Amino acid sequence: MVRGSRRSRTFRRIHVKTPGNRVVMHYKKRKPGKAICAICKTELKGVPRERQYKMQNMPKTAKRPERPYGGYLCTKCMRKKIIEKARAMKL
Q1: Cα–Cα distances in Å, from 13 out to 2, 6, 30, 34?
Q2: Tens-digit pLDDT profile for the chain (91 aa)?
């Protein structure tokens, strides 16, 4: 019988074929939810959906887009924010 903590659906069940030709069950933690825009709550493009230990080994440029507010705002909201700032500077 599997350990009690593994019985919940917190862990993903993955069937793995071993070299001894047996199929065993591996339990892996699920991926985190998708990153969302701070203003309009849409899904952010270019932000990977990986667990922390994989994100630590990724280069900084792979973790979020290379633009102002990258990884925080979507492109539409970012454009609005930049235009807003430019208009505020003119006054």
Answers
A1: 12, 9, 10, 21
A2: 788 888 889 999 999 999 999 999 999 999 999 999 999 999 999 999 999 999 999 999 899 999 999 999 999 999 999 999 999 987 6
Domain shared by 82 and 39, yes or no: yes
Enter the tokens of residue 82: 């930049």
Supply the range of the domain harboring residue 65.
32-91
Same domain, residue pair 67 and 43: yes
On whether both 47 and 86 belong to a single domain, the answer is yes
Give the amino acid at 11: F
Measure the CA–CA gap between 91 and 87, rounded to whole angstroms: 7
DSSP-assigned beta bridge partners for residue 16: 24
